[in-house]
Amino acid sequence: MTEVNKDLQNERNKCTFDVKELTTVIDGSSEKTSKRRERARRMLSRNHLFQEDVPEDYLSNREVYENGIRKSVVAFDIVREMQAEGKSSIEDYRDVISSLLQTSTLRDGSALVLHYIMFMPAIMSQATEEQQMDWMPRAWNCSIIGSYAQTELGHGTFIRGLETTATYDSDTKEFVLNTPTLSSYKWWPGGLGHTANYCIVVAQLYTKGECHGIHSFMVQIREEETHMPLPGIKVGDIGVKLGLNAVNNGFLGLDNVRIPRNQMFMKHAQVLEDGTYVRSRHSKLNYGAMVFVRVVIVFDSVNYLSKAVTIATRYSAVRRQSQIKECEPEVQILDYLTQQHKIFIGIAASHAQRITGIKLWETFHDITKQLNDGNLDRLSELHALACCLKAISTSDTASYVESCRLACGGHGYMKSSSLPVTYGLVTAACTYEGENTVLLLQTARFLVKSWQTMNTQELTPTVAYFKSAQTNTNKWENSVEGIINGLEIVAMRNVSSCVESIKKRMSSGMCYEDAWNLTSIQLVTAAEAHCRVIIISTFHEEMRKIADTVSSCLKPVLLLLVELYAVYWALKKLNDLLRYTNITSGDVDRLQAWYEDLLTQMRPNAVGLVDAFDITDDMLCSTLGSYDGRVYERLMEEALKSPLNAQPVNDSFHKYLKPFMQGKL
């Protein structure tokens, strides 16, 4: 067994809690930990199939895709095995997918992911029972591979503006699909380029000369046996990106492509044989698939963040640099408070976002039951909640991961550290499945409406704090509860200020739409403030419940994570707190001292906290973050794998450099 770096081992020796106990808390139960480890064991047992002569960083774009497919069929065959073992409910399905994403060694994504997180969930939520019987068995066992084509070259988050058309022909009982302009080409769907042979296409529905808005259609895009594009289909890969180059994002053009009438998703709205359109009882019932995807994105962000803080923390325990006191040895950089400030918030945030993601899933599940019973009262709330949590979790994660990269200095810039790759993956989530600013504005619409109607309608649970915050005149209190109360006031006042700004602009003769646009910066701020309240209050409430069930050694560590997260965001939002609450400069001084003390308290357990994420070296894929701490040895080992080191003198020396140096070019 490889010897562990002494500094890293010393960190583990001084940990004050049982790391395995925290792993169980993170997973939810010892049974779930066992299942996750079993999935990881299955994955790692096939690691020999992932071995490659040349590291992925040195491959061409085509080779990256082909290598990704080779790995994906191995990884997702494990999902197929789990499904065959009886994983059939949507809850189990989510757990399997989330766990696979967590334990996957697919470093640059997979072209099969969209098949699982969008194609199949869309069938589950939008297709009739008869359609599900036709499509789900084949999708479930991957005898067909699907993608989900909504975004177009010219339109993204503004779904109503999509240009792709599906026109019903009552003579043949078919829909005719077209992308009439270049801007209407579908653009970005994962796996669409060369992997998927079926696709859910979102298009404007036309029947009897009338447009009925966007609807979803099942379209076969490639012949099943040869994989050749079908007539009228123009499909391919969109090219190299900042990250996720194995995902095979594609484009799709449709030229008079005909599909049978029963390939329109008809759970909520229908087109009868004669072309009569039967409207959905609620236009927003299709939110279900989008919410499911956003839940997965929140959990996926947590997985990436957990990896980043593990790498940065372990490296910071191994790396020694400079002196805090003269005449003393160089210290571990983890001893610097500035280093703790960069990294520790990411550790706390990974727990906060995971717990809030679980709460979002539970809310989604509860409201879905209500929808099935015909109760649509909380549908808008669910959509607003999913929008802001997706936006904040992804933008925060991108910021935390970049902070971890910077915390690792120059070595963090190496691709072999895995931090640049991870940043490329998480920053992509800030724009896919809804650009974050637009999503926050959608949340803001819900908040404004809730504020305007709260005297005539009962507030839904996530905005119930509006009324209590209005009457809260208590003196500022430096406690987690006090911070939550203060942030509730900030969120409430931000929303009320937005409403007043819109009213003021309209009173001067401006139309509502222009008034909204000119207030949009404030509206985004209000939506973010609301989301901060949701995350911090949920983290506080749920972690207190968990803390009451764990050992006396682990309990204070869990509560410290909540305190650190709350105080960090209170300090980040000081401008708002000073503007809207009665916090004083003395309170701010005490808040800063409290935060610095929390960092110091967390320092001895930092390595134990990231070890509890239980991420194996194969899944971490990092020279800086390995469990044994052999940072410098691994960096050199990876450097020697570069094809440039295959020969002592590169051909370019004789061809270009030597003639240049001798003046003979």
Q: How many extended strands?
A: 11
Distance between the termini: 54 Å
Compute the average pLDDT: 89
CATH class of the domain at 144-278 reads Mainly Beta
Rg from Cα: 27 Å
Helix content: 40-55%
Strand fraction: 5-15%
CATH homologous superfamily name of the domain at 144-278? Butyryl-CoA Dehydrogenase, subunit A, domain 2
* Cα shape: globular
Q: State the CATH architecture of the domain at 144-278.
A: Beta Barrel
Low-confidence stretches: none
Structural class: alpha+beta
How would you sum up the major sheet?
A: 6 strands, mixed
Write down the CATH topology of the domain at 144-278: Butyryl-CoA Dehydrogenase, subunit A, domain 2
Helix run count: 23
How would you sum up this structure, described in words?
This protein is an alpha+beta fold and 665 residues long. Among the domains are: 92 residues, no CATH class; 135 residues, Butyryl-CoA Dehydrogenase, subunit A, domain 2 (Beta Barrel); 132 residues, Butyryl-CoA Dehydrogenase, subunit A, domain 3 (Up-down Bundle), CATH 1.20.140. It has 23 helices and 11 strands. It is globular. The model has no long low-confidence stretch (mean pLDDT 89).
Strand and helix map with partners:
Layout: H1 6-13, H2 19-27, H3 30-45, H4 61-84, H5 90-103, H6 113-126, H7 129-140, E1 146-149, E2 165-169, E3 174-178, E4 186-187, E5 198-207, E6 210-220, E7 233-237, E8 250-254, E9 257-260, E10 270-271, E11 277-278, H8 287-318, H9 337-372, H10 379-407, H11 419-428, H12 436-453, H13 465-471, H14 480-507, H15 512-518, H16 520-547, H17 555-572, H18 574-580, H19 585-602, H20 606-611, H21 617-620, H22 631-639, H23 651-661
Parallel strand pairs: 1-5, 2-5
Antiparallel strand pairs: 2-3, 3-9, 4-8, 5-6, 7-8, 10-11
